[in-house]
Amino acid sequence: MLLAYMLRLLVAGICGALIGYERKNRMKDAGIRTHFMVSVGAALMILVSKYGFQDQIGWANLSLDPSRIAAQVVSGVSFLGAGMIFLQRQTVKSLTTAAGIWATSGIGMAIGAGLYWVGVSVTVLILIAQVLLHGRFNWLEGPKTEQLTIKMEDQPGAVETLQRALTEKSIAILNFHAEKWLHKKEQQPMIELEMIVRLPSSLSSEQLMSLIQEMNEVKAVGVQ
Fold first, then answer.
1. What is the bridge-based pairing of β-strands 144-153 and 86-88?
2. Cβ–Cβ < 8 Å for 148, 209
3. Residues 6+ apart with CB under 8 A from 188
4. CA nearest to 112, candidates 45, 20, 33
5. Which has the closest alpha carbon to 149: 218, 58, 211, 101?
6. What's the CA gap between 49 and 69, in Å, rounded?
7. Which end of the chain is flanked by fewer CB atoms within 10 Å, N or C?
8. How big, in percent rounded to 5, are the helix, strand and coil portions of the chain?
9. How far from 175 is each of 103, 109, 147, CA to CA, in Å?
10. For the chain, what percent of residues have pLDDT higher than 70?
């Protein structure tokens, strides 16, 4: 039986590592080691839940519920995934990675319970879905946000011209802050703009930069 248990842990670890490898290649926070440990750990907990109390089956007035550990694994891994989600530039990041961790724990539990083909099939399904959905399907792409810092000359109507140029390209301004200051070297009044914009799926960050730099008043533009 020990060899059977070790085989389950090994297969669970391989499946988790495969998903982690795909995440690592996309420069995500949770990579091979994280997914490997989550899958092996989940498989181990299921093995303990199913077989760890067999020596107590003959005890009088004893009631066992092998599913209780599985339920706790799901809840515990959910907290682990929640810790990976963060907010950046008004956009929630790492949701897919958190969901992958949660799914990986399910794979580990399935293999730990002896459902090899279920666990392996879900691993293959997740890998195929990640490859396909990360392809260049424009209809799948959502709006992107960028946080910009723009330094421009304080000319009459310059800010309004910039806002109009963005609006014409269907770029929404989510947040806007402007400060005036004096360029000490050139003694030129300047404006520093900080804004968060939402881009349509058809417009790239490079196109946004080119659009802003076309204005003669703009002296510098950066993306945070």
1. unpaired
2. no
3. 153, 154, 182
4. 45
5. 218
6. 6
7. N
8. 55, 20, 25
9. 36, 45, 9
10. 76
The model's pLDDT over 7-47, given as tens digits with 9 standing for 90+, comes to 888 888 898 888 888 877 776 666 787 788 788 888 888 88
C-alpha span between 223 and 136 (Å, rounded): 24
Nearest to 151 by CA among 191, 195, 194, 208: 191
Structure tokens of 188? 């030129």
How far is residue 199's CA from residue 213's CA, in Å, rounded to a whole number? 16
- Are 118 and 110 contacting, i.e. CB atoms less than 8 angstroms apart? yes
Q: Where are the alpha helices (DSSP H) in 134-195?
A: 158-168
User: Model pTM?
Assistant: 0.53
Reading the block at residue 151, the tokens are 């330094």
150: left (phi over 0), alpha (psi -120 to 50) or beta: beta
Contact 18, 127 (CB under 8 A): yes
With vertex at residue 80, the alpha carbon angle to CA 75 and CA 81, rounded to the nearest 5 degrees, is 95
CB 110 within 8 A of CB 42: no
- Please name the residues in contact with 32: beta carbons below 8 A apart, sequence gap of 6 or more: 17, 20, 21, 24
Other Cβ atoms within 10 Å of 119 Cβ, number: 27
8-state DSSP, 143: -
| Residues facing residue 222 across a β-bridge | 149
Q: In angstroms, rounded to a whole number, what is the distance separating the alpha carbons of residues 109 and 10?
A: 13
pLDDT for res 27: 66
